[in-house]
Amino acid sequence: MKHTKKIISILVIGLIVFWLIWSEYKNRHLRTHFTITTGHITGITGTSYKNNNRSVLYDYEVDGKLLHGENNLAPCVKTDSQGLRLLLVNQEFPVAYDTDNFQKSDIILRQREAALYNYQIPPSRQYIDSVLSCK
Questions:
Q1: What is the helix (H) or strand (E) element at residue 94, kind and residue range?
Q2: Disulfide engineering: 98 pairs with which of 3, 54, 73, 104, CB 3.0-4.6 Å?
Q3: d(CA 126, CA 129)
Q4: What tens-digit pLDDT sequence spans the chain (135 residues)?
Q5: What interhelical angle do 126-133 and 81-88 show, nearest 10?
Q6: Distance, CA of 49 to CA of 101 (rounded, Å)
């Protein structure tokens, strides 16, 4: 019984480590094999009572196919849900998508995401970066 628990624990830890390495690989692949397109934010979901994290839901098109994406967003704590929705929903933003896997994407809302893709946020959108980043 003790031996079985030890084996199960090792397997679970091994799976978690594999998942973390695989996720990092996919993120690095996206950052080196990407194309930029335009995405349309369709919604903002959830917040937890413990933190200010939300998910940004967006659509983008590749080769005539409509795709859906979702990215986590931890905006400035000064930004409430309603203000965030008014700021972002129904707006268009650049989306970097993986050229090998169109389903893998990242919406570019702030300069910190833009820097990952050597993209410069236009001056007209820098206000959004300042609101989301508490600048």
A1: strand 92-98
A2: 104
A3: 5
A4: 677 888 888 888 878 887 777 777 666 777 888 999 999 999 998 765 556 678 899 999 999 999 999 998 877 766 777 888 899 999 999 999 999 889 999 999 999 889 999 999 888 888 888 888 876
A5: 160
A6: 34
